[in-house]
Amino acid sequence: MNMNIKALAVMAVALSTALPAMAASPWVVANNTTKTECSACHMAYAPGFLPKRSWRAIMSDLSNHFGEDASLDDAARTEISNYLVSQAPRDIRGLAASATPLRITELPWYTRIHGPRFVAYAQSHPSIGTLSNCTGCHRGAERGIFGDD
Ligand code: HEC
Ligand code: HEC
Fold first, then answer.
1. How far is the CA of 24 from the centre of ligand 2 (A)?
2. In this structure, which residue's CA is closest to atom 30 in ligand 2?
3. pTM more than 0.85
4. Residue 121 alpha carbon, nearest atom of ligand 1
5. From the CA of 42, how far away is ligand 2's center (Å)?
6. Nearest ligand to the C-alpha of residue 122?
7. Which of 33, 62, 147, 149 meets the CB 3.0–4.6 Å disulfide criterion with 12?
8. Is the separation of the CB atoms in 53 and 61 below 8 Å?
9. Ligand 2 atom 17 nearest Cα
10. pLDDT tens, 12-53?
């Protein structure tokens, strides 16, 4: 990380307490099928990051998944969909009730924190690439830790 981004990361530690540590944390993937099948191309994103309606939309169109075919057999698809939808919030703060984003990286809170400088930073570091690659900057992302690197 460069100095500016590092300094911002320090500020984020204070925010990290905003992510509640619950028994079944929505910030960590707790379903093995999801962990396995949804981490082939990127880290498996935790259910808490998108509203239920977004997970439903993503899971009902896996053959057309951000330019990739991420199709699964019915059993796996149903299990993953049930898991993500059941653990996801009904709404996300700042998001219009009519909006069904397919990306975490398009959510209002996300773009507020990760501005254009972050996009440029990710693009200029091949090991990161895009802002969708949470683990590229947050080593603890798969453990639900985002404010502490
Ligand atoms: C290019 C590096 C980079 C990438 C990629 C990135 N982040 Fe961040 N993120 C940061 C930095 C730096 C901060 C601290 C920013 C601040 O405080 O202004 C941050 C802050 C956060 C915070 C708030 C900190 C906290 O503890 O509450 C969350 C949550 C978060 N990121 C989630 C994600 C998720 C989810 C992804 C992937 C979809 C992601 N980030 C991808 C660099 C990145
Ligand atoms: C065949 C590869 C592949 C598999 C398997 C896959 N994805 Fe993806 N996914 C992608 C690509 C490519 C992107 C876009 C990444 C980018 O823009 O950098 C993406 C992006 C996403 C995003 C949006 C990330 C953002 O930008 O906020 C979500 C959410 C997501 N995938 C969920 C899933 C789920 C759930 C599964 C398992 C059912 C899954 N993916 C399996 C390839 C895959």
1. 23
2. 45
3. yes
4. 1
5. 6
6. 1
7. 147
8. no
9. 132
10. 444 444 555 445 799 999 999 999 999 999 999 999 999 999
